[in-house]
Amino acid sequence: MLGPMTARLSLTRNGPDEAVPLVLLHAFPLDRRMWDDVLAELDDLPVITLDAPGFGSSPATEELAEAFGAPSEPTLTLYADAVAGTLREAGVDRAVVAGLSMGGYATLALAERHPDLLAGVGLLDTRAAPDPEAAREDRLRVAEEAAGPKGAGAVAPMIGKVLGTTSHAERPEVVEKVRGWLAEAPPSGIAWAQRAMAARPDRLAALEALDVPALVLRGAEDLQSSQDDAESMASALRDVEVVVVPRAGHLSAVEQPQEVATALRALRERCLRA
Length: 274
Ligand code: MLT
Known about the structure:
seven-stranded mixed β-sheet, alpha/beta, Rossmann fold, 7 strands, 13 helices
């Protein structure tokens, strides 16, 4: 049987090797390349990017579940445990963790299970509330499709929802880049993550229990997480900055990387002062 020392998420360290790095968790069904343009703005900071279980260069979810003693059914707690285990093995005991959408769900699971690891949190284009029943059923349908002959084609329609109206109207290169990422998404990772996201509980209480600086950010044109979602997370947090990024949709970090990088830099500075 593999141990947590051998099964770890694939990670890249960027910038100087300083304490309290910024750790960035990407959206579904992408991988850590999603952060490339943000990283270019933060090359003077210690930043770690990780691939989610079953995505990019990270191991298959079955391998991670066995190593971390997780239940075989998909759950975001495995993602959170794998992030914490991978960071600790890399010598990181405290970090500012920011996640976008699915990365935000994993950040919320980290807040619940590994709050001692967190010097601060960034919750980007995400929400603490669970899915309504119809959305859960839709996820399970997409999981079935991805596991079948459609494969990554099951997530191709997401292109209409993950980018804002500005990107669709004015930035064909961004649309094509994201379309390419969706086409490359691993079917097994898609199926696992959809089932894990469908099963996630309400995690507002985990935010209420946190006492570290926080950022809640969303693209002004985000069709998938609402201003109400952002406000509900912000009202649960004690020390929070709320940022709305103009001309960005759900993938704010891809659509307006400079604004997102500025907000993440400010978050880490607040965490170092706290
Ligand atoms: C994401 O961007 O990670 C997804 O939109 C998450 C979700 O489907 O809720």
